[in-house]
Amino acid sequence: MVMTGQPRLDCLICDKHRRDGPLVGPTVWEDEHLVISHRPAGEDGTTVLGYLYVESRRHVPYLADLTDTEAEAIGRAVRRAALGLRTELAADFVFSAIAGMSHAHFHQHVFVRHTGTPAEYGWMSGDQWHGAPRGTTEAVVGLCSRLRPYLDDGSAPSTSPRSTNGPGRS
Q1: How far apart are CA 27 and CA 32, in angstroms?
Q2: Stretch 12-18: mean pLDDT
Q3: Which of 3, 73, 120, 122 is deepest in the core (most CB within 10 A)?
Q4: What domains does the chain contain, in order, with CATH numbers?
Q5: What CA–CA distance (Å, rounded) separates 97 from 16?
Q6: Are 145 and 138 spatial neighbours (Cβ–Cβ below 8 Å)?
Q7: Among the listed residues 53, 58, 42, the one whose alpha carbon sits nearest the alpha carbon of residue 137
């Protein structure tokens, strides 16, 4: 049985929440239940824009270990983050995945498929396309600032989405 609840010293995501370790990226938003951050810049000093991690603040490994309150907060945040990403980056799609294969701390990936991504890049590998918009940490921090109003209270800026997707697309 996995102990849950308290931050752990052997967890990279708990370290990240303490602003320590290799996973630390710019914070988009946080509250008592969750932390949302952008993927940090890589060795070249850049990263693909629009790749977020939504993580439970409490150390729990699985979706089923979240409380109803935590799950509701995460669901609401994921929807609002998707709206913000689609609007701010004019993305064709916003995808989300919970895999939990490498870190035993609940985290959900929320990421865009940028307009123009070639079809040979599958839904999970659009960030591998060399033509995807990239930004330095400064650009990522700017994007995080633009995303924050979507998460603060659910009221997005008064502009409509820059991308018009068909029914069922988010």
Answers
A1: 14
A2: 94
A3: 73
A4: 12-152 (3.30.428.10)
A5: 20
A6: no
A7: 42
